Amino acid sequence: MKYVLDSKQMKQVDNFSIKRIGMPSLVLMERAALGVAGLIESKFSEKSKIVCVCGSGNNGADGIAVARILFEKGYDVTILAGVVGTSEGETQLSIAKKSGIKIKKYTRNKIKLNEYNLIIDAIFGIGLLRNIEGNYADLVSAVNDSKAKVVSVDIPSGINSTTGQIMGTAVKADYTVTFGYKKIGLLLYPGADYSGKVKVVDIGFPKTVIRKIAKKAFTFTGDDINLIPKRMKNSNKGMYGKVLVIAGSEYIGGAACLAGMSAYRSGVGLVKVLTHQNNRDAILKAVPEALISTYNSNYGVEQIESIISNELEWASCIIIGPGISKSEIAVTLTKYVIGNTKVPTIIDADALNIMANIIADAKTGANTEAKIETNTEAKIESKIESKIETNIEANIEAKIEAKIEDNTEAKIETNTAAKIEANTEANIEANTEANTEANAETKTETKIETKINKNIFTNEDGVSFILTPHIGEMERISGFDKRTIKSDPIKYASEFVKYFSKTYSENLNIICVMKDARTIVTDSNGCAYINTSGNSGMAKGGSGDVLTGVIAGLISNKMSCFDAACMGVYVHGLAGDESAIKKGQYGMKAGDIIDNICAAMK
Question: Which CATH number is correct for 237-354+459-511+541-559, 3.20.20.210, 3.40.1190.20, 3.30.1050.10, 3.50.50.60?
Fold first, then answer.
């Protein structure tokens, strides 16, 4: 497992190392420069003509140090720099001048890089917060327009180190040498497309510093496959779980086959498929090891609930959604499962869309009842005030007229005040009593309705729901639009899980597997896994069905639900990579991924 950090976290690492531990920033800078120079030495000969393009910050200072080291090793190096804006930069530039390196200043419309065959990009680092414009944008364009190879220092200039987004424009690197820890922006697209081959170099950050950073994102590497529990020699099928696959519908049967097969390939002891009776023969042929339970299209709600109730008691893990459609039966199945499950439940595909509708209806119901309560209270209050005012005015006028004949002004005042008080109290009491019953009834009904709306999920403490949406489904269940989600996928996946847990299911464990070119797995504790396995050949129908089976298989092998979701995505991608080697990305299909799960898990 490798931690990956965002811009804020890397600054914390820097500050801890420099201010708390006492490591001089120039020492860290020198070690960073040695790392970049080392990669260049291994990839490019001394005959290379190199220009190091430096910005005004410490990324530029790193670049100046790299140029000096390469110059000392015999390379033909030129430094192209503008204004130096840090004390470290001034120190590095002073050393470079004394070393005899060629130093040029760049000016607008006079940037010529075609004479060089290697460019070191040290314009902007991980601290970039604004879009690149003006002279710097021209500089980036000149780098990209040249035919030279490009090595970026820490991160390609213009890539947001937290989100991977392009800040106006960005350098497209062939290699990136990053320091201490890989940056999230190097993994997420489009940043990953701009980073080329990424090398992480150790520059001496204390090992203890990573423990000071909260809510770290991480990735897996090849050795992490060993985190999957080993199967015991003295064991039986009952020890490896019973997965209930609720999949397929009257005219869709393949999804059930794919989910069932991949679950078995991932180590499940027993698989049972609950599906429409039309799929029975196809499933028996494709997955003869599976148990089968079926229903008919004419089954009513009570019949469906009776069937699913018995199956839930049997299962130790549930998959619901692949190919179930959005029929009334599918809605009944989904509602019953999410409202009654007591075991880890993976919600995918059609079940996610049905769940989105259930949540939307719950929100609408809660909002409607809240409005009724607010309006009722407002009307009662208004009515009380109106009656009080009317009765006071009527009684004042009557009493004044009665007493004027006796010319007893003092009595008018006394009686008026008394009558005002008496009528005020009487009317308040009368109106309050008249409306209290209706008001109480309205409030009671609203509270009950709100509770029902919020408790659409099982009340069984600790149950895990693993939601596996692709970006389109994520848009529907989260309320965030696609563009917003893609602008910072970790942030919005994490926010969705937190909101979901707080609003609907505080007693549950919610995990989101947001599927994309870089699948993100998040939980309510703020953890985030970024998947780096897999390829574009997996962007085909059925791949998601296979993933649900892999995750269910790992849960059945005693991994925690979050770990199983993360490892399931990783294994799924590895199997996809193996399929691409054998069949090619164009020709591979979901069934090929299943065939290579075994190899991926060895």
Answer: 3.40.1190.20
Residue 145 marked ligand-binding = no
Check whether 154 is labelled as a binding-site residue. Answer: yes
Q: Is 73 annotated as a binding residue?
A: no
* 516 annotated ligand-binding residue: yes
Residue 152: strand pairing partners = 121, 176
> Residue 207: what pLDDT?
87
| Predicted confidence (pLDDT) per residue in 535-544, tens digit | 999 999 999 9
Specify the pairing of strand 49-54 against strand 118-122.
parallel
Helix (H, G, I), strand (E, B) or coil at 346: strand
User: Where are the chain's structural domains?
Assistant: 2-219, 237-354+459-511+541-559, 357-454
> Is the pLDDT reported for residue 11 higher than 90?
yes
- Determine if residue 129 is labeled as part of a ligand binding site: yes
pTM for the full predicted model: 0.84
Is 168 assigned to a binding site? no
461 belongs to an annotated ligand binding site: no
Q: Which of 137, 351, 290, 266 is nearest to 568 (CA)?
A: 266
Q: How far is CA 35 from CA 62, 176, 199, 202, 423, in A?
A: 11, 11, 9, 8, 89
> Could you give the CA distance from residue 152 to residue 171 in angstroms, rounded to a whole number?
8
Question: Whole-number mean pLDDT of the chain?
Answer: 87
pLDDT digits (tens, 9 = 90+) for 517-567: 999 999 988 899 999 999 999 999 999 999 999 999 999 999 999 999 999
Q: Is 517 annotated as a binding residue?
A: yes
59 annotated as belonging to a binding site for a ligand: yes
265 is in an annotated binding site: no
pLDDT of residue 420: 34
Q: Is 100 annotated as a binding residue?
A: no
**Residue 431 CA to its chain's centroid (Å):** 53
Nearest CA among 440, 581, 569 for reference residue 517: 569
SS (H, E, C) 223-274: HHHHHCCCCCCCCCHHHHCEEEEECCECCECHHHHHHHHHHHHCCCCEEEEE
The reply to whether 237-354+459-511+541-559 shares the fold of 2-219 is no
Annotated binding residue 60 = yes
pLDDT tier, 386 (very low <50, low <70, confident <90, very high otherwise)? low
187 labelled binding-site residue: no
Overall fold of domain 2-219: Rossmann fold (3.40.50)
pLDDT band at 364 (very low <50, low <70, confident <90, very high): low
Instruction: Report whether 521 contacts 511 (CB < 8 A).
Output: yes
Task: With cut-offs at 50, 70 and 90, classify the pLDDT of residue 379.
Answer: low
CA 170/CA 143 separation, integer angstroms = 10
Closest CA to 154 of 129, 181, 131: 181
Task: Quote the pLDDT of residue 367.
Answer: 52
* Strand partners of residue 346: 319, 466
Mean pLDDT value across residues 124-147: 95
333 is in an annotated binding site: no
Residue 127 annotated as part of some ligand binding site? yes
Q: Is 2 annotated as a binding residue?
A: no
Does 440 appear as a known binding residue?
no
Q: Which residues contact 373 (CB under 8 A, 6 or more apart)?
A: 442, 443, 446
Residues contacting 15, CB < 8 A, separation 6+: none
Q: Is 255 annotated as a binding residue?
A: yes
